[in-house]
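We read letters as residues; the fold follows as tokens. Both lines appear below.
***
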Amino acid sequence: MKHHKVRTYKSAEHLDRADQLAWKIASVASDPVRIEDPVVDMIGNRIIDNAAVAAASIARHPVVSARAQAEAHPRQPGTTIFGLPSSQKYSPEWAAWANGVAVRELDFHDTFLAADYSHPGDNIPPVLAVGQHCDASGEDLLRGLAAGYETQVDLVKGICLHEHKIDHIAHLGPSAAVGIGALLGLPTETIYQAVQQALHVTTTTRQSRKGEISSWKAFAPAFAGKMAIEAVDRVMRGEGAPSAAWEGEDGFIAWLLSGPKAEYIVPLPQQGELKRAILDTYTKEYSAEYQSQALIDLARRMGPKIGDLAAIESIVIHTSHHTHYVIGTGANDPQKMDPKASRETLDHSIMYIFAVALEDGGWHHEKSYAPERAARPSTVELWHKISTVEDPEWTRRYHSHDPKEKAFGGRVIIKLKGGSTISDELAVADAHPLGARPFKRPDYIRKFRTLAEGVIATAEQDRFLAAVERLPSLRAGELSELTFSVDASRLGAPASHGIFDWKPDTQTAARRAAGS
């Protein structure tokens, strides 16, 4: 890996195109290196993982809404949408929108945490959508996803967004554009322009993950993927983009990050170096914020040691800066302690998550968030006994570059009535590559089968998994096999209608006719 210094340049300073971060990223994307077997295998795992969580969310309101919007845009050759018959095709940017929301709604797929944080699996819907529309092959898809993951992980390692309250989709727009460019074998110049446009239009604030969190949390990554497709389409037509997007005097670093005097270090593969970043990422065993994964496992382990949970006087979770300030009491969000909070908010409350995991000895992607579950008196009482504190050692380990030292968990100290204490700690989740039960292909398949049960017919599950096994050999036109269909009764129906299906009622028509 080569480490690139990135800073702001005044307009009067000359910055060669080849020295701009966007060009360096595009050069990596257009470098036609081979995709090694472990990367091929992991890409297949993540395609299965995405389909699993999409199946579980197929009838949830945000997914139904996004799918309804996409269905207004049929197109040939087009792209498939999760749940719908593979014969029905839609414009790729809208299919990526629908599929992206389905993948993201339950916050249940892969993750990478470093200077910033991300869900690199969000690259798959837009890259796969374009691949289906453009009759790409399995090899093309592997090349595109390896490049998209590489870009996402390297940006997350080098540039912190959340410090400046910028949402992490600002790294996803460029990485998805890279993935699409690599999939299509586009020249460096085209990818360079698309990366810059994608950054420019996907920079949003972190209010989407603060306070009363709305369904936009699921839509935001899908928006970035949709914008990436449109960016690539636009620059393929010969159009340019704001340049230099990161380094410009009025650019991203100067005004939205640490300012004109700041310097960032972004690692990127050198020419000819393999793209292996996907192997640094990890998926979720539980449908909750990644920093809660190890703590759910820890709650399962500590519960039997406590016995009667009514004997608990207080619980203090000693953890990293990020966990304390984003999903802990350091966020100062009263909504994180509110039994009436949305699922999205409860997902970002480690106090709620730890309380439920202690009581239930595990976690369920739907039942653990049910309103009646959140309102259970014993849960509310326990929940409000839990607080977090930042521990400098856990913060250091969170940011460590040594994978054996890197940690996303914490140390829990439980004080019981009478004065005795119980304490334990866990650095990484059991499902983490360095955890007690690291996820392998059979675990991804089991997750898929579990979440697809009662949603996707068994024969359709088998067909989809067989297609993933053949991923490297899929021919042009066969990428549509990497989806699934369900019975129409499983899809849910939109609760309301939008612009695309607007039909004026008779009273409205009468008023217009009368000139009122």
